[in-house]
Amino acid sequence: MNPPGTPLTPSLSPSGGERVSERRERGIFNLLRVLLAKDLRRAGRNPLPVFINLLIPLCITALVGLAFGGKSDSGGLGRIRFAVVDEDKTVLTDFLRGAANQREGGKYLEPVFLERDEALRLINDNQISAVLIIPTNFSRNYLLGRAGVSLELVKNPAQSIHPAVLEELLGAVVTALNAIARNLQSEFPDWQRVFEGEVDYKVVAALIERAGDKLKRAGKFINPPLVLYEKDVPTDASKDQPAGAVKRTTQKADPVSGIFGYLLTGMAGMFLLFLASNATTDLHREIRQCTFARYHTLHHQLSPFLASKLLFTVVVLLICSTILLGGGGLVFRVAWRHPAALAGLALGYAFFAAGLMAMLVALIPDERKAGALNTVVGMALGLAGGCMFPPQGLPAFLRDHVTPWLPTFWFVDTARNLQYGSGEVAWVSALLKLLGLSLVLLALAALLFRRQFRAGGRP
Amino acid sequence: MGLLRVEGLFKAFAAIRAVDSVSFEVRPGEIYGLLGPNGAGKTTTISMISGLLEPDAGEVIVDGTPFGSDPQKAKRIMGVVPQELAIYEELTGRENLEFWGRMAGLSSGDAKARASEVLAALTLTERAKDAVKTYSGGMKRRINLGCALLHRPKLLLLDEPTVGIDPQARLNILEFIRGLRATGTAILYTTHYLEEAESLCRRVGIIDHGKLLAEGTLKELQERLGGDRLFVLEADLKDISPDSWAGFHQRFRVIQKTERQLVVSAIGSRDPSDCLKDLLGLPVQVENVTLKRPSLNDVFLQLTGRDLRE
Fold first, then answer.
1. Into how many domains does chain A fold?
2. What is the CA radius of gyration of chain A?
3. Which ipTM value was assigned to this complex?
4. Domain finish residue from B217, B244, B263
5. How far apart are CA A49 and CA A375, in angstroms?
């Protein structure tokens, strides 16, 4: 500072705007580089907002991991602990009980055999995922072919995915029991007598022999199965495939990673919009601090300034995508089958999300009002685009006439197809659509800002 | 020939005429003051000149070229200092200057060199590497000013650049601006501080409710009041009207009248002692009569009937 009384004297040489003008117009990329460098430097000096942005996907991943069981020694879901209440207590139910924790079943299932009251107490204490109740006379009714034979499953409402898996498994068991009943019905009276203790070894031997004969005859239909469902189609001749088509190979499906891969892509589609909204608050800050208006007094168009904000947001979103999809993939052991294509798609989606949020800022420059709008828009696009629910489950009109036009759907559906679909997935066309839309949104934002400046001086 | 010429500038926001047919010009090496209270239309005028806001009517001509025909050319020779501190608090003073220099079109090397010059001129070299958020209000104001100077603008628009800072910091900035005038820069300076306009500006335009009420040099404006001195009469003037004093309006022009005070100027070139005698002879209980030089506030008073400081 000057000492008191010492005037400030400018040591500036005479104005020479012409000389300066010769050095200008170094190109749009140079301008963008300077603007982006400024934002990155500012973010480095005040890293808290960026940390919060990065923390959000980390928290989301961790929360989902906790909610759905997270990592376990067996990978994915871990063992499902459930209670079996055998109120029938016959040889057949002993057989069912034993089957629950044998071989492969033991890797995923951890049954405990309890009385009904104790089992229900454990479910109330959230110590087990479900209770399977084999009611009294189950074996008798099943073998006699009586109507209304049922198994009872009490699911733990405090857990989400484990009870659902058990329900699916029980469905498979019921299907198998029905198939056996249809094919071996004529033998059931004899089997019933055996299960009720009338053990005549000759009769048992004859029963086993007849059952064996039937299985032998059915063998050629069962192993290998007559009808195959093949998820992926192996192709070697990929030379003629269009750009962006992905070569698919047969791969053993992991049902557990499949669930999380599906969830992660949807989550990324939804939360990247919210994260884009957070990252775009810097544009609100520039409006509030009048640095955006000051920039507008210079000889540049508005679009480079907005483009730099878009790039800054894209950088943040790419880091967040890596955390969500990469980190989440590691936590849930999701082996992304086409990481490069997925990364390209995430890049396009980041551009779209940033462009959308820039346009929303231009539409509503007030930060508080914009926050509410961004959340609503993000949720609506996410839900209608099939991020949180499978698009097949959406209302027919929405599914058929709205969802296909939504960028969230372009991203999520293409990403899921890359991971689970068969045949060629034209991810490049989805990427181009997202990038194109981003440019349109950016141009729209510039137009809206220009109009606001003209009308009121400050957005 | 003015470097900046404003002709019939008009802007309305709904029913409010923010700027109503304002015309003036600023010449090279001149500081032109736009003086008016808050809400008078000063910032709206500067916003239209700088291209932030589109006028409803009128024209801005910069260096002989209408702004609308080539805004980029006009903007290249302008430097705009907004009333708000439009700088990045997280960045250092030097980084702010270099950034705005780059934005104004300087190369990286030129921006660095010019930033050093401007920092030295603003006596901020020692704090150049500190984040702006650690600066005092006066230092921030100086950086805010400096950011517009990197590209050596021929025309500088200053929108109340000293608002909210202490008197010493204000004096320093005013001295700096006087120095800029010496370099030939044309400066449009808006303020609501009378002293700033009086001490800094060669010509002053008085603006209120969007209208330019008067303009000229301080002397020219003073002459509007009828001379270079005013008489302030203190008395109990409640329920008394000068209209009732015979011949008063032939000898004096009333600038302001309150219950306790009457400010008048003499009509014609009369001797001050004669004027004093006339005033002391008025049919009221005079407590005091003083002479003073007319200020811009008196001009404003005469033009609007209000005190600029109100």
1. 2
2. 32
3. 0.87
4. B217
5. 18
